[in-house]
Amino acid sequence: MQRSRICTLLATLLAPVALLAQNVTSSGTLSSSIGGVLLDGDRPAFQQLTQTKKGGFIGLDEFQLTSEGESSVFKFEARLMPSDDSYRLVARFDKSEKYYIEGGYDQFRVWYDGSSTRLPDGSSFVMFDEDLSLKRSKLWLEAGYYTPNQTLLKFRLEQGIRDGSKSSTKWGDSSLAGRNIVPSFYNIDEETTTLTVDIGNESQEEVKWNVGGRYHEAKLNNAHWFRRRPFESADRQVTSKDGTTTDIFAVHGFYMRKLNEKLTVSAGALRTDLDTNLVSSRIYGQSYDAVYDPAFLRRQQRDHGFFGLHGDGEVNQTVLNVNAVYVPRPHWSIRPSLRFENLSQEMMAEFTETEVGAANTGFLMAEHHGETVADKEYDEFTGNLEARYTGLKNMVFSATGEWIHGTGTLDEKYIDLHSMEADPERLSDDSRDSQKLALDAKWYVKPGLSLFAQYYYQVKINDYDATLDNTVGSYPSYLSDQDFETNDINVRLSWKPFSQLSLISRYDLQKSTITTIAVGLGKQESLSMDTHILSQNVTWTPNSRLYLTASANFNFDRMEMPENVFARIKHADNNAVSGSLSGGYTVSKKDDLYVDYSMFRSSNFIDYSALSLPFGSSVKQNVASITWVRRMSENLSYTTKYSLVTNRDDGTGGINNFDAHVLYARVQYRF
Predict the structure, then answer these.
(1) Alpha helices (runs of H) in 451-588, residue ranges in sequence order
(2) In angstroms, rounded to a whole number, what is the distance separating the alpha carbons of residues 525 and 527?
(3) How many Cβ atoms sit within 10 Å of the Cβ of residue 82?
(4) How much is the pTM?
(5) C-alpha–C-alpha distance, residues 67 and 92, integer Å
(6) Around Cβ 421, how many Cβ atoms within 10 Å?
(7) Which of 263, 255, 259 is nearest to 324 (CA)?
């Protein structure tokens, strides 16, 4: 069915070629490639890192055709790589200032690695075929028509598909560590259809406008699979299903007008309505996708699941904004803006909840038929003011301030449909305030030397007030205040001491803190994070035949938190070093030689697998390649490339290590 759609689409798109006049100029590119991989080590880790299939590839990797007539242009491009599951067919026909039509099909595959972290003995769980991948495809048709005054009416229909499996960090538990370190994966089956219609005119300098509508439908049939206590007497498999259907209808518009040389104003609006139908379940069993069995022999205390969930949700969003650009005097510009957003959500779901009792009850399965209801209202006002000054020679100064104030209410309850009692039932009010100030300065010291500096300060204040909460104790309505504060400064120096050498240096420093007030507890700094980033780029071209480029990035990141009594963790580092070196040399009139090298290093792994989840990563990655290009003529060229890719990952106990030799060859013809 899909192939017939593609053939019909291509026939429609190629038809305009016959309409072109005989006076046509055509040009294009045709290239075919072949490659393979010699791999020693973990295949899924290699494929995820390089996004290259281990089995090799062959096919048409590029075809481009452009035909230009006196008043029309036809473009066609294609990529056909069956072994890599990569296809692209796109055609577009333009009739100058009258109309255009475009359509195409694009498909590619994304690879994932389904492995998890290490066990206390240094090994890792292998629960399934870790060679996971998702196929993503898109089919579209777009057409536009220009009226005599250059107003554009545009129509686009697009269908997207995601199908396959991918890794997940929602892992199962094991008694080996008492924590969730058992790998899991998602089965993905999603289809989306989007229809957009826009009409607008942006050809005039004084006035620009656009209005449009968008309809989006999404159908999800996804499942998440994981195991609890594998290879133990309490081994059981859990399947969580999500069968969601969503309809979104949105209308939008904007209008911009230049009133005079000093003032330009614009305004925009967006209205979005979302309707969702939910179908879901989470069932424990002895196999994947098991049927619910209340007498399942391996059930354990606190195995919390549900089945027969069906529900509906509705979201309504309105966004309004007004902007202006005011130039009161030469060298000054002021840009104020205001934004308002209203968000309304209503959700309802009915389901049967399952819960397993303690061992002294014989692991008795209890079932509760219940309903959850949640209503949320939220209003947010945003103001932004930017001022820029260019009155000093070779210097530019700007300052930006942003203020956000939002208030909302959340009413949520669970109703037992047998007793008709609501437990829990909560009504919460919240307010959120944010302020951000940014200062920028650019100094063009002299030709080839410039300096840029920026500082910004941001604070976010979140207040929560549980006006109604019938749960025992304060959980989960235990937060009353949580504040975020960030200071950031970055400096960039661009210097070209002479024509053959170019240097770019940058330094970033960011300090962030989170302060929390919980019910019954005092004010406490719950997190502090310091980040230092230093980067350097060098480009050297000593002569017309040789160039060298090098870059290095150093990231020093420390996150500190109150000591966890269980794991004794006081801080977590995310330090990393990455770099690259590349160069090219013209060997002769027909031959070019290129070399490339890149590396990544992190050494932050904290092995708490005997007590809790391991933290951080310890990875060493290297990619080195050499490429030779031979130009047989102005139209024909050959390319061969060899790459060595290595990976060492101590965080997985070494099971993701690999050494790969990648071979690539390409023939390209230009016409």
Answers:
(1) none
(2) 6
(3) 11
(4) 0.86
(5) 11
(6) 12
(7) 263
Q: Report the alpha-carbon distance of residue 141 to residue 156 in Å, rounded.
A: 6
Residue 345: which H helix or E strand, with range? strand 332-356
Please report, for residues 94, 229, 288, 294, 398, the alpha-carbon distance to residue 303 in angstroms, rounded to integers and kept in the order given: 61, 12, 16, 11, 57
Enter the tokens of residue 164. Answer: 């396959």
Cα-based distances in Å from 81 to 33, 90, 109, 644: 9, 15, 11, 23
With 0-12 / 13-18 / 19 or more C-beta atoms within 10 angstroms meaning exposed / middle / buried, residue 127 is buried
d(CA 492, CA 507) in angstroms, rounded, equals: 7
Give the list of residues 6+ apart from residue 602 with CB closer than 8 angstroms, or none.
574, 575, 576, 577, 616, 617, 618, 619
pLDDT at 617: 80
- Residue 574, helix vs strand vs coil: coil
3-class DSSP state of 334:
strand
Contact 545, 593 (CB under 8 A): no
Encoding tokens for residue 494? 């661009």
Instruction: Using 50 as the pLDDT threshold, list the residues of the chain that sit under it.
Output: 9, 13, 18-21, 565-567
Find where tokens 């055609």 sit: 91
Side chain identity, residue 526: S
- Distance, in Å, from the CA atom of 283 to the CA atom of 306, rounded to the nearest integer, reads 7
Whole-angstrom CA distances from 296 to 130, 175, 240, 301, 488 are: 28, 21, 17, 12, 55
> For the CA atoms of the chain, what is the radius of gyration?
30
Residue 4 in 3-state DSSP?
Answer: helix
Contacting residues for 575 by C-beta, under 8 A, at least 6 apart:
555, 556, 557, 558, 602, 603, 604
Q: Which of 510, 458, 509 is nearest to 484 (CA)?
A: 458
Distance CA 35, CA 643 (A): 11
User: At CA 355, angle to CA 352 and CA 356, rounded to 5?
Assistant: 145
Is the backbone of residue 295 left (phi > 0), alpha (psi -120 to 50) or beta? Answer: alpha
Q: CA torsion sign, 469 to 475 to 481 to 487?
A: negative
The confidence score (pLDDT) of residue 472 equals 61
**Which residues are bridge partners to 199 per DSSP?**
153, 211
| CA dist., res. 305 & res. 561, Å (int) | 33
User: What percent of the residues of the chain are helix, what percent strand, and what percent coil, each to the nearest 5?
Assistant: 5, 70, 25
pLDDT tens digit sequence for 227-284: 999 888 889 999 999 999 999 999 999 999 999 999 999 999 999 999 999 999 999 9
- The pLDDT assigned to 13 comes to 47
What would the two tokens of residue 486 be? 């960030």
- Torsion angles phi and psi, residue 304, rounded to 5: -100, 120
Residue 328: predicted pLDDT: 94
Give the CA distances from residue 505 to residues 76, 441, 493, 550, in Å, rounded to whole numbers and listed in that order: 42, 16, 5, 12
Which helix or strand (DSSP H or E) is residue 655 part of? none
Give the integer Cα–Cα distance in Å for 250 and 243: 23
Q: Report whether 128 contacts 172 (CB < 8 A).
A: no
Cα of 380 vs its chain's centroid, Å: 25
Whether the upstream peptide bond of residue 424 has omega within 30° of 0, thus cis, is yes
Which one-letter DSSP state was computed for residue 611?
T
Q: Is 243 exposed, middle or buried (0-12, 13-18, 19+ CB in 10 A)?
A: middle
Cα gap 600→602, rounded to integer Å: 7
Three-class secondary structure of residue 203 per DSSP: coil
